[in-house]
TrEMBL record:
<dbReference type="InterPro" id="IPR005467">
    <property type="entry name" value="His_kinase_dom"/>
</dbReference>
<dbReference type="InterPro" id="IPR004358">
    <property type="entry name" value="Sig_transdc_His_kin-like_C"/>
</dbReference>
<dbReference type="GO" id="GO:0006935">
    <property type="term" value="P:chemotaxis"/>
</dbReference>
<dbReference type="InterPro" id="IPR036641">
    <property type="entry name" value="HPT_dom_sf"/>
</dbReference>
<keyword id="KW-0597">Phosphoprotein</keyword>
<dbReference type="Pfam" id="PF01627">
    <property type="entry name" value="Hpt"/>
</dbReference>
<dbReference type="InterPro" id="IPR002545">
    <property type="entry name" value="CheW-lke_dom"/>
</dbReference>
<dbReference type="GO" id="GO:0005524">
    <property type="term" value="F:ATP binding"/>
</dbReference>
<dbReference type="InterPro" id="IPR051315">
    <property type="entry name" value="Bact_Chemotaxis_CheA"/>
</dbReference>
<dbReference type="InterPro" id="IPR036890">
    <property type="entry name" value="HATPase_C_sf"/>
</dbReference>
<keyword id="KW-0902">Two-component regulatory system</keyword>
<dbReference type="GO" id="GO:0005737">
    <property type="term" value="C:cytoplasm"/>
</dbReference>
<dbReference type="Pfam" id="PF01584">
    <property type="entry name" value="CheW"/>
</dbReference>
<dbReference type="InterPro" id="IPR003594">
    <property type="entry name" value="HATPase_dom"/>
</dbReference>
<protein>
    <recommendedName>
        <fullName>Chemotaxis protein CheA</fullName>
        <ecNumber>2.7.13.3</ecNumber>
    </recommendedName>
</protein>
<dbReference type="InterPro" id="IPR004105">
    <property type="entry name" value="CheA-like_dim"/>
</dbReference>
<dbReference type="Pfam" id="PF02518">
    <property type="entry name" value="HATPase_c"/>
</dbReference>
Length: 550
């Protein structure tokens, strides 16, 4: 497996060679049309980016050469140096040397014969800055080595590919996995040695293919995290606050599409942390805190998930304020709101239109709530959690899958039909006697691990007629022992009674076709190895349906 340094090096080389090719093309065009300001601007931009990228990754030789070339073209842009005569030759030599250095980054002992070229570049810069012409100092310009010729043209080992092409490729892999599981199931039924051998080989190949395609879509979280220092600075200035930002885990990798989807969500949470979380300096000092607010943004790998945390040391969330908001907005009566656990209270912050903002600022409090954040994270099969302590601060934790197309799921059976629940939303599986369930308020509840959890029979819910459905009746339950899957969403738990539990399995989720695509409780469909259709339950929709009735 490649190290991070090797990956960064490959990315830099691929991009730098693209810049090098573009520079050669633009300079050749500029020689034919030396007054073309747009060409000069593009050349300057490419050299400036090359300089910055090389310096950031530690290739000082390339950075310094790019800087000299950038300076020379800046003089040309400002009409202090003419792109003619010796200057053209020297600048072409400088670009050739740049390509030579890039192409030989893998050779540790490589030494370019660059003394004369560097000296010549210094001369034309000096003459341009002094107002002389290069021809005025012709004893001094020496010939440099020629690096570019018809014998040593090289192509980059890297290619850039549109993400939509990788999306299509991953979809094809998903289809292949479905067929693979079907073939493996058939081979087990037939028990033919040749077929068993081929299916085993097919399994290994598709596994390798799946992970290879998923690996090609990975980017480092740093590509998003590294944009936040400037963002935080701008928000802090607008809010008249001073913020210290600590970032860790930039090297963690995640699917590029997932990172794209959560970008706005993370920005929204950051704005809230600075605007509503971090107190003004005088308030912090009065409370015995440092005047500078602290925010940390971190990422870490957690099995098949990536965990992103954004924490602040601000005022925290007053749970009593939230309870009052729950009642005022009509979600629950006061008695029910007071009975909620702290984690359940915080979950209402994600309800549409719920806000504790006392005032509108430039960056927050305009009616765009955390429900938008929640919906974005739900759309990729992730989940979000809030932990907060009044006066101490707040932490948002995002649990994100590493891939959208392939998900780990728990398979089960209800009324002879197959269903799946994403593992992301599966808390635990328990077996309870029917006597341990209690009929309260038209629903069943159970005490599980010191928590009172609402429990429903999926058999009754999915198969009974709406007029005769009775989810609060134990009499309709089959058998003495009930298999219950505890699912979690938005800090709320719900128990689902199922007929049979099967196994955990990676599944490829496909969108439902009309007319069943409008049924909220179904998040998609997959095919099992047996060829059976398996509906994927939408846990957020289920929990919203039942737990908002409390």
């Amino acid at each position: 497996m490649k190290s991070r340094e090797e990956e960064y090096k490959e990315i830099f080389i691929g991009e730098a060679l693209e810049y090098y090719d573009a520079l050669n093309r633009h300079i050749s065009d500029l020689e034919k049309n030396p007054e073309n300001d747009s060409l000069l601007a593009e050349i300057f931009r490419l050299l400036h980016n090359m300089k910055a990228n090389a310096k950031a990754i530690g290739y000082i030789h390339i950075s310094e050469l790019s800087h000299k070339l950038e300076t020379a073209f800046e003089l040309i842009r400002n009409k202090k140096l003419a792109f003619a005569d010796e200057a053209v030759t020297i600048l072409f030599d400088g670009i050739d040397l740049l390509g030579e250095l890039i192409n030989n980054l893998d050779q540790e002992d490589y030494q370019a014969q660059d003394e004369n070229i560097i000296r010549n570049l210094d001369i034309i810069v000096q003459t341009g800055e002094s107002g002389n012409k290069p021809g005025d100092k012709a004893v001094e310009v020496a010939k440099g080595p020629k690096y570019l010729n018809s014998k040593n043209i090289q192509l980059s080992d890297l290619i850039y590919i549109q993400i939509k092409k990788l999306d299509h490729l991953l979809n094809l892999v998903g289809e292949l996995i479905i067929d693979r599981d079907r073939i493996i199931s058939i081979s087990k039924e037939l028990d033919h040695p040749d077929l068993t051998s081929v299916s085993s080989h097919l399994y290994r190949l598709t596994e390798d293919l799946q992970f290879s395609v998923m690996d090609a879509r990975l980017v480092t979280i740093g590509s998003l995290f590294n944009k936040f220092p400037r963002i935080v600075r701008d928000i802090a200035v607008a809010e008249k606050k001073e913020i210290h930002l600590d970032i860790t885990g930039q090297d963690i990798q995640i699917d590029r599409n997932i990172l794209q989807i959560i970008t706005d969500s993370l920005l929204h949470i950051m704005r809230n942390a600075i605007s509503h979380g971090i107190e003004p300096a005088e308030v912090r000092e009065a409370a015995g805190k440092p005047a500078v607010g602290n925010i940390s943004l971190s990422a870490q790998s957690d099995r098949d998930m990536v965990q992103i945390k954004l924490s602040d040391d601000g005022k925290g969330i007053d749970l009593n304020d939230v309870r009052r908001g729950i009642v005022q907005k009509g979600y629950l009566p006061a008695e029910a709101a007071n009975e909620l656990r702290d984690s359940e209270v915080l979950s209402y912050i994600f309800e549409p239109g719920f806000s504790l903002a006392k005032q509108i600022t430039e960056v927050s409090g305009r009616g765009v709530g955390l429900d938008v954040v929640k919906n974005a994270i739900d759309s990729i099969g992730g989940r979000i959690r809030i932990d907060s302590e009044k006066g101490k601060g707040t932490t948002f934790t995002l649990h994100l899958p590493t891939s959208i197309a392939v998900k780990g799921a728990l398979l089960f059976e209800v009324d002879s039909s197959f269903y799946a629940i994403p593992l992301m939303h599966t808390d635990s599986v328990v077996a309870l006697d029917k006597d341990e369930l209690h009929e309260i308020g038209g629903l069943l509840v159970a005490d599980i691990k010191n928590e009172t959890i609402t429990v429903i029979s999926l058999n009754e819910f999915l198969t009974a007629d709406e007029k005769t459905m009775n989810l609060g009746s134990k009499a309709k339950l089959q058998g003495v022992v009930q298999n219950i899957i505890i699912v979690t969403y938005n800090n709320r738990k719900l128990g689902l009674i199922v007929d049979k539990l099967f196994r955990q399995q990676d599944i490829v989720v496909k969108a439902l076709n009309k007319p069943v695509d409008i049924i909220e409780i179904y998040g998609g469909v997959t095919l099992l190895g047996s060829g059976k259709v398996c509906l994927v339950l939408d846990v957020p929709a289920l929990t919203r349906y039942f737990l908002t009735k409390k």
